[in-house]
Amino acid sequence: MSQTARLTSVHPDTQVRSLEDQITELAAHISAATYRFLELIREFDERNSWAGPGLKSCAHWLNWKCGINLCAAREKVRVAHALKELPQISAAFRAGRVSYAKARAMTRVATPENEDYLMMIARHGTASHVERLVRLYRQVKRTEALKQENRHHELRELYFEHRRATPW
């Protein structure tokens, strides 16, 4: 019998809790490391350190040097810059209390005014909950913007005057 099988049969609850603790602790370390990675990306981009022949952006540099898919690299650069203006999300992400998936979703709509609310959802919900909330929030904002545009459109008026040409 293997050592793992013996441990599991002797203390299955203790063994499972230990594994659970190790997994969640490592996930927090990964989130904290990802935050640091994004901090470095932001600084690298702000200094235009990526600029060189044939390179169009920091995302292209990440694609070339780090092997990150171009779409994912663009998202990392976007999130890196957004976190600079969002202290609560940044602090939670830096401490490993919020995953990259949650931080990425929140930074799509986060402002200093709604950061509290988004963090409450992130603390109590899954990444899927946060993604869904952000998707619905963006939908509402698009609908509001469309209504505003329609109101402006309805209020448009055209005035013209027809004058007779006067003979000279």
Brief overview, please?
The protein is an all-alpha fold and 168 residues long. Helices cover 71% and strands 0% of the residues.
Chart the SSEs and their pairings.
Elements: H1 3-10, H2 12-46, H3 58-66, H4 70-83, H5 87-94, H6 100-106, H7 115-124, H8 127-154
Question: How would you explain this protein's 3D organization?
Answer:
- This protein has eight helices and no strands.
- α3 packs across α4 (70-83) and α6 (100-106) runs parallel beside α8.
- The N and C termini lie far apart (114 Å).
- It has helices spanning 3-10, 12-46, 58-66, 70-83, 87-94, 100-106, 115-124, 127-154.
- The mean pLDDT is 91.
- Helices cover 71% and strands 0% of the residues.
- The chain has 168 residues and is mostly helical.
- It is elongated.
**Average of per-residue pLDDT values:** 91
Oligomer: single chain
Number of strands: 0
Give the structural class: mainly alpha
Share of residues in helices: over 70%
Overall form:
elongated
What's the end-to-end separation, in Å? 114 Å
Largest sheet: none
Q: How would you spell out the order of helices and strands?
A: HHHHHHHH
Uncertain segments of ≥5 residues (pLDDT<50)?
Answer: none
Query: What share of the residues does DSSP label as strand, in percent?
Result: under 5%
How many helices? The count is 8
Radius of gyration: 26 Å
Short key terms for the protein model shown above:
168 residues; 0% strand; elongated; mainly alpha
